[in-house]
Design goal:
two-stranded antiparallel ribbon; alpha+beta; 3 helices; 9% strand
């Protein structure tokens, strides 16, 4: 069964988001049209949790948020210049 928020017809639209948002092909194939898989959709989960439609800014923040690992600083490594360390070449 398709997601209850998916409105198909002349224009495809996600009713969990304010405005005329067209879910990407990835979203439609992975979540919207998959049997029961729509409950795993991040948009659907936030929609159900908050019991309200998402603003488009919230939707885009949800789908474009990067999950990067924290950056740990590394000590500089010496570079070789013609077989010698750069610090010794001076």
């Amino acid at each position: 069964m398709a997601c209850e928020c998916l409105e198909e017809g002349r224009r495809v639209k996600c009713k969990a988001v304010d405005g005329d948002l067209v879910p990407s092909l990835h979203e439609r194939e992975r979540y919207c049209r998959s049997d029961g898989n729509f409950t795993r959709c991040p948009t659907f989960q936030v929609f159900r949790l908050n019991q309200r439609r998402l603003a488009q800014a919230e939707y885009y923040a949800l789908w474009t948020e990067l999950e990067l690992p924290p950056i740990s600083p590394r000590p500089p490594t010496p570079h070789r210049v013609e077989g010698e360390l750069a610090d010794e070449a001076v």
